[in-house]
Q: What sequence folds into this?
């Protein structure tokens, strides 16, 4: 291979020279062709001139042509002949030069062929030498193959020996498997026998447990009956305790075992209902008693708010009111349907149709949406952008969709100075007065100012005199939320600053010049229990007898005309 490459390199100058000569010869072909075409043209022209000369000569002989024309054509003929001779000489010269160049190129190619023949000779020698080396390599390969064959033969022998050892091992393993199978069979027999013994033992234990359970059930029934009898007897005796203490000169409450507002203290301390006495509470039925239209508006607004609650991040509301952290809002919204129904009923009774309403402290918007559904023009006011950090914005959006005008309190102020005097027919102040710090006077005066003459304020608030609050206080417990909620809050604190008694709400309304048109007390969170029994049932019935013990205070008051 190397020889062939070297020979090729040696022949390159000769080959290049021959190639260049051929290229130069090729360049002469166009010139030679051009000369030949010119010669052909001259020959044609010469033939035409000769023809005319002959014609002129015949004409001259006939006397029909002048001697001058004949002389002119002859002269022209001589010129063409000279030009033809010149072109012929040039063509012959080009032909000779081309012949010379072709012979030179042929000589160069001949030298190249000679060099190629020599190179092929050297290549043959190299191939012969390479063939010799291949023969030697083939012999070595044959030897290696022979060695491999002998190695494979030894491997075959080893594999045969290994197979024999594996056969022996398989026999041994099979023998051991047989022994294990017999052992497992014996274990199975033992387990079966043990299972039979366990079944008999379990049967004996079950029989004894049945007897024990029967005895326990009988004992429990006897104990429960005895407990109820003891509780009834104790309650009957304790019911007379307040009066007994009064008779003994100790005295409880305002006299005769009653509080100042006429509630029997003993029945709050020891509430009792019969063992089998159960009352079912129905939230839908309670809302439905206000009529079909009010129920429809209430349920629609409640459902719209509830649909937005799942997965909603309301943690921002807990910064200023820690008791709201991780609060499940769904029960609060659902049970507040009773409050919404009372509010729609009051507005229907005491306000004009299509009234202009301000929902002051609109929160989730369930009251505002219900009012809009009822055909009123509603402004919803609360801290939607500031204190709540936008947590309630989705609820503000559904209010807007319902036609409610949503206003941030930061744009108005708690003094409502943005609104002119006599701007609204109705102001709703639902579950809000207890959140007012310092004094509620300024807020009530601001509400009065924005009400039209004869406009109404609808207000509800937790009743400090709620029966469960009184029971807590008698037991020495606070009636307010845990102190850590207020203590750990970021100021300003948005929780309950003060809760009120019914006569306190009535006094404040009159103080700002209102006429109280309607005053109601009702329970609503109790509807979260589907059934009432025992202590809860007894306290519920006590609120039936004494309305001032109920959970909420609800009032409707009018600004004087």
A:
């Amino acid at each position: 291979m190397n020889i062939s490459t070297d020979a090729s390199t040696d022949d390159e100058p000769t080959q290049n020279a021959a190639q260049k000569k051929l290229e130069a010869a090729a360049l002469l072909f166009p010139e030679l062709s051009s000369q030949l075409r010119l010669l052909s043209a001259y020959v044609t022209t010469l033939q035409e001139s000769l023809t005319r000369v002959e014609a002129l000569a015949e004409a001259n002989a006939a006397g029909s042509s002048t001697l001058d024309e004949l002389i002119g054509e002859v002269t022209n003929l001589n010129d063409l002949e000279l030009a033809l001779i010149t072109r012929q000489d040039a063509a012959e010269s080009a032909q000779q030069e081309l012949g010379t160049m072709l012979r030179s190129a042929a000589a160069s190619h001949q030298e190249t062929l000679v060099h190629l023949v020599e190179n092929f000779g050297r290549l043959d020698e190299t191939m012969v030498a390479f063939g010799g080396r291949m023969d030697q390599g083939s012999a070595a390969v044959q030897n290696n193959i022979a060695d491999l064959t002998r190695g494979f033969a030894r491997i075959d022998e080893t594999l045969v020996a290994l197979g024999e050892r594996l056969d022996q091992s398989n026999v041994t393993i099979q023998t051991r498997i047989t022994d294990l199978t017999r052992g497992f069979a014996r274990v199975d027999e033992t387990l079966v026998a043990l299972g039979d013994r366990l079944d008999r033992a379990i049967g004996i234990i079950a029989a004894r447990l049945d007897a024990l359970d029967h005895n326990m059930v009988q004992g429990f029934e006897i104990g429960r009956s005895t407990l109820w009898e003891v509780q009834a007897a104790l309650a009957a005796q304790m019911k007379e305790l307040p009066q007994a203490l009064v008779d003994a000169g100790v005295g409880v409450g305002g006299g005769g075992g009653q509080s100042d507002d006429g509630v029997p203290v003993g029945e709050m301390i020891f509430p009792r209902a019969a063992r089998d006495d159960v009352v079912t509470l129905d939230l839908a039925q309670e809302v439905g008693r206000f009529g079909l239209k009010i129920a429809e508006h209430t349920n629609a607004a409640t459902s719209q708010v509830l649909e937005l609650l799942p997965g909603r991040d309301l943690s921002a509301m807990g910064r200023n009111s820690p008791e709201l952290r991780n609060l499940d809002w769904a029960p609060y919204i659902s049970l507040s349907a009773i409050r919404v129904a009372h509010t729609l009923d009051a507005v229907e009774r005491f306000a004009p149709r299509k009234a202009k309403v301000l929902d002051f402290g609109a929160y989730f918007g369930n009251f505002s949406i219900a009012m809009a559904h009822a055909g009123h023009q509603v402004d919803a006011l609360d801290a939607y952008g500031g204190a709540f950090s936008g947590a309630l914005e989705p609820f503000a959006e559904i209010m807007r969709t319902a036609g409610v005008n949503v206003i941030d309190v930061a744009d108005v102020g708690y003094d409502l100075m943005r609104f002119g005097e006599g701007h609204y027919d109705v102001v709703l102040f639902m579950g809000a007065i207890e959140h007012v710090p310092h004094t509620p006077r300024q807020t009530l005066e601001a509400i009065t100012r924005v009400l039209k003459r004869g406009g109404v304020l609808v207000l509800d608030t937790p009743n400090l005199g709620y029966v469960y609050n009184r029971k807590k206080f008698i037991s020495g417990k606070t009636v307010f939320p845990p102190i850590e909620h207020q203590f750990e809050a970021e100021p300003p604190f948005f929780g309950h600053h003060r809760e009120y008694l019914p006569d306190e709400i009535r006094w404040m309304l009159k103080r700002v010049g209102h006429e109280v048109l309607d005053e109601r007390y009702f329970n609503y969170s109790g509807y979260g229990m589907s059934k009432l029994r025992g202590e809860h049932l007894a306290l519920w019935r006590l609120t039936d007898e004494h309305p001032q013990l109920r959970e909420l205070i609800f009032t409707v008051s009018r600004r004087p005309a």
Summary: The longest strand covers residues 451-462. The radius of gyration is 62 Å.
